[in-house]
Amino acid sequence: MDYKKVNDYEVIYMIRENDEDARDLMLQKYLPIIKKLASKFYELYKGNGADYDDFVQEGLISLNRAINSFSENNNALFYTYAITCINRHLITYCRNITSKKHMVLNLSEREEETLFNFKDNNNVERDFLFREVEKEFIEFKNSFDFLDSNIFELRFNGFGYKEISVLLDIPISIVDSKLMKIRRCLHKKKKNVFN
In 10 A of CB 104, how many CB atoms? Predict the structure, then answer.
């Protein structure tokens, strides 16, 4: 079916009249977009215990919310409104999975992987050092508040200032000031280790 010919406003009207076929039609139309957005976020946050299917599911949930909350009086296209809702919901979901309250689950998953690698690997020393460095990294990261911790981890993983700004939905100036604060903490930690 050519989804470009589907009028979103008519389909939304039919959905609000409890037409399940119309809801399925809308989901099928937006599913490729949701999958593309989900894969983008999954690539950025796959190390935090989230699965690709989780991102797709969250995207579908936010599309349903967008359908239910859309108003023609806002002078916006439904497409624009839906994409904005999906993006914001996925950003919130990413913040939630990287928050400290989910840290235990994410760490246990990583430790389990490390333990299995430890058993199968002949180089015991290397694995021990890797776990020590990883533990130190996590302790340092956890010494910051939620936002600083996320900025530190994204920067540590090679993201630029602008990318961090977009992902966390904050101005670049805040990213810069937070990274300066983190650098100062790193320098203090280095001095304490070598003194």
Answer: 9
